[in-house]
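re: that complex we talked abt at group meeting.

here r the seqs, copy pasted straight from the sheet so there may be weird spacing, ignore it
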Amino acid sequence: MGFSFFLVDHLSISFGGIKALQDISFNMNKGEIFSVIGPNGAGKTTLFNCISGLYKPDQGNIRFKGNLIENKKPDTIARMGIARTFQNIELFSHMNTMENIMLGRHIHMETGLFKGMFMWGKSSFAAREEIQHREKVEKIIDFLELQNIRDKFVGALPYGTQKLIELGRALALEPDLLLLDEPCAGMNSEEKQDMIFWIKDIQDDLGISILLIEHDMKMVMDISDRVMAINFGKQVTLGTPEQVQQNKEVLKAYIGEEN
Amino acid sequence: MDMKRDYYEDVQLFTSPVVIFWFSALIGALYLFPLFAGNYYVYVANYIAINIIVAAGLNLLVGYTGQISLGHAGFFAIGAYGTIILMIKAGFPFLLALPCAAFIAACFGFLLGLPALRLEGPYLAIATLGFGLTITQIIGRIEFFGGREGLHAPDITIGPWVLDTDKEFYYLLITLTILLLFFMRNLIKTRAGRAFIAIRDADIAAQTMGVNILYYKTLAFAVSAFYAGIAGGLFAFVLKFIEPEIFTLMMSIMFLAMVVVGGLGSMMGPIVGATLLCWLDLKLRNILDIPYVGEWLEQLSRHWFSITGVSNIQYIVFGSIMIAIVLFEPLGLYGIWIRTKKYWRTWPF
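got the structure back, here u go
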C-alpha cells in the first residue's frame, strides 16, 4: 500500500481560547487541484500557515510525500517542495520583478558568502550560476507575461500584477505542491480569466498539485477536482464540486437559508 | 536605451567602457593623492577610509538586512585590541593579526546575532547597546589588554617594507577599503545578498521561500562585525595608541548616523555618509578656523546654547545638518544623487 501524496490528519490548533482549526482531515492526490472554501475567519489561512510551517499545530499530523512536516521549519518545508503565495501580498518591495522571482531559486542555488564575494568576472562560479538561474526565471517571466515589468521595482506595481509576481516566485521554487491563498482577490474579470488559465496550465503542463483558497465560487467549481468547505475551524463537507454545491450547510453559508 | 543581450549584464559591475574609464580615473586619483596632499589631509583620508569600512559593514546589517546595531564600537574595539594584542603578545605579523582579530569580532557578531532572532527594533537596539557598552568596560578592567593605560601600536612590517608614516599606511588602507567594498558589492548582488534583502522586506515570505532566517541573520551580524573588526584593527595604527575610552557609545551612534545620512541600503550611501560626517566632525572641532562666521558662531553658542559657557557649537551645527538631510531627503545623500542623475538624464524636460 502506497502513501498518499499529501495528507492532513486530524489537525487542530487554537490561539488562546479560540479554536482556529478543529480536527481537519483531508488528503490530496498528486496533480490534483484541491480547493478550500469557507467564510472569512473560517480558518483557511490558518490551515495554510500550519502547512507552510509558520504555525505549529496543537494536534494532528501533516504528511508530505511520506514525511511528517508539522514540526519542521518553514524553510525546510520549502526545500521539501511546498511553495505558497499570500493573501496579503508579501513581496520584497525594494527588489525588481526579476530579483523577486530569483529569490524563488534560492534553494536551488549554492553561492554563499565567499563564492558571492568572489564574483570576479563572467567565468566565476557565482556569475555562472547567476546566469543559469536567470535564464530559468526568464522562462517564468515569459510564461506569466511579465516581460514589460521585468526590471521594475515591485512596490509600485498594480495589485493584480503583484499577485502574479508572487505566483511566479512560488513557481521558481519548482514545488510539487503549490498553496495559493486567494490568487484572484482584487482582480478584474479579465485578469481572473487569465489567472484561471495559468492555474490550469500549472496543473497540466508542470504537473504541480495545487491547494487553493478562493472566494469566487464560479472559479472554484470550474477548476477544482475536489473541494473542502470549512466553517468556524471545522470541516463542513468534502467532495467533488457538484457534491459540495448541493450540501445544505454550504448553501446556507453562501446563499442564505430558505424558509 | 540599449538592449540587454546577456544575463551577466544584470549583475556585472562595469556596464560600459565609460564606466570603466571613470572608475579607473577615480582609483588612479586615490593612489596619486598622497603625492600632492599634505600630511594632515592624508591623515583625514585615512580616518575617512576606516569609517567607510565600518559604515559599509553596518549598512549590510541595518540597510540591507533590516536589523539595528548600537554596538558597533564594541566590534571596532575588538578589532583594534585583537590586532595589537596578537602582534605584541603572540608575535603575529600584521597581515595575519588583522584578519584574525576581525574573525574574533565576527564570532562576537555571530553571538550577538542570536538574540536578534527573537528581538526586533528598539529591543534589539538596547541589546546591542548593552554589548557595546560592556565590551569596553571588560577590556578596561583586564590588565592583559593594557587596562586603563591603553596600548601602543607597534610598527607594521609587510615583507621588507616598514609602514611608519601616514602616507605609507594610506596605500595599504585604500587598497583594503577598495577590496572590501568590492566584496560587499558582489555579496549584495548574489544569492546571499538577495536573502538579506528578502528578510528585510518580508521575512515571512523569505522563510516560506526557503531562506533560513537563523543562518542569514547571524551571518549578517558576523559579516558586519568582521568589517568593523578590520576597520578597528586599522584604526589602532592611525591613532598609534588605543585606550577603552575611545570606543564610546557616541562612536556607535556616529557609525549609525553615517549609514542613515548616506542612504540606507545602497552601496554609495555609507561611502558618502562616512565621508561627509567625518569631514564635518574634523572641521567643526576647529570652529574658529571657519572664515567670517566662525567667531560669530563661537560667541553665539557661548551666550545662548551653553550652560557652562563652553562652546558647543560643533554639536549643534552637526546635529542640524543631520536633521536637515534626513528631513528633506529620507533616502539620505544617495537619494539626492539619484534625483540629480534622473534630472540630467531627462533634461531639458
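couple things i noticed - Chain B has a mean pLDDT of 88. Residues 15-248 of chain B form one domain.
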